[in-house]
Write a structure and sequence with these properties.
This protein has 193 residues and is α+β, with helices and mostly antiparallel strands. The chain has a four-stranded mixed beta sheet with strand order 7-4-10-9. A three-stranded antiparallel beta sheet has the order 1-2-3, with no helix packed on it. The chain has a three-stranded antiparallel beta sheet with strand order 6-5-12. A hairpin with an 8-residue loop joins strand 9 and strand 10. Helix 2 packs across helix 3.
Length: 193
């Protein structure tokens, strides 16, 4: 059953029992991800191989200054071969690390601010076709000055932007990062009415 607006959507999961994982083989173990080849029996009985990327999870944060501007981080992204403007984020230090703790850590490490008021905003699955990465996104208010603690390979500039400026950058194609777009739009919908 699907309903529009503020109503909840319910979808039946009839086919889930018809897919069966027969095997999973680790192809590569990396610092951030593990790459596997899965052998799957599909509903018509055929056996196929699918790629699967295992990820330990991540957390991100929307830091809100007293003037309402959001703190963003500008950093080089090797995969895109360019700089991006994003919300602060990072991987969990282990699958058992509470995401809110990771979000607080990334806030301070990347922006040089801390907050004792982190509120959950949204959960995001980044690439459901082949990766299990889940990012928990929080809103941080009442920011207190602290110190950046960048990794030796991190070079980050902090920029304060209004929600309107960020939305304009999204629609102009200047911000393409999925977690950042989801976070800004969710923040705007929840807090900027």
């Amino acid at each position: 059953m699907r309903r529009q607006g503020s109503h909840i959507c319910y979808m039946e999961d009839k086919m889930a029992e018809e897919f069966k994982r027969i095997g999973r083989r680790l192809v590569y173990h990396g610092n951030i991800i593990d790459y596997y080849r899965d052998t799957i029996q599909v509903p018509n009985g055929n056996v196929v191989e699918w790629d699967f990327i295992g990820h330990k999870g991540a957390a991100a944060v929307v830091p809100v200054r007293e003037d309402g501007k959001l703190l963003m981080v500008r950093q080089w992204r090797n995969a895109l071969d360019r700089y991006t403007l994003e919300i602060p984020a990072g991987g969990l230090n282990g699958a058992d690390e509470p995401p809110v703790k990771a979000a607080a850590r990334e806030l301070e490490e990347e922006t040089g601010y801390r907050s004792h008021e982190l509120e959950h905003l949204i959960s995001l699955r980044t690439t459901v076709a082949f990766c299990n990465e889940k990012i928990e996104i929080y809103v941080a208010r009442n920011l207190e000055p602290a110190h950046q603690h960048l990794d030796e390979d991190e070079f980050i500039d902090v920029k304060a932007c209004t929600v309107e400026e960020l939305c304009a950058m999204i629609y102009a194609g200047q911000i393409e990062d999925g977690k950042t777009i989801a976070a800004i739009m969710s923040y705007k919908d929840k807090y900027c009415r």
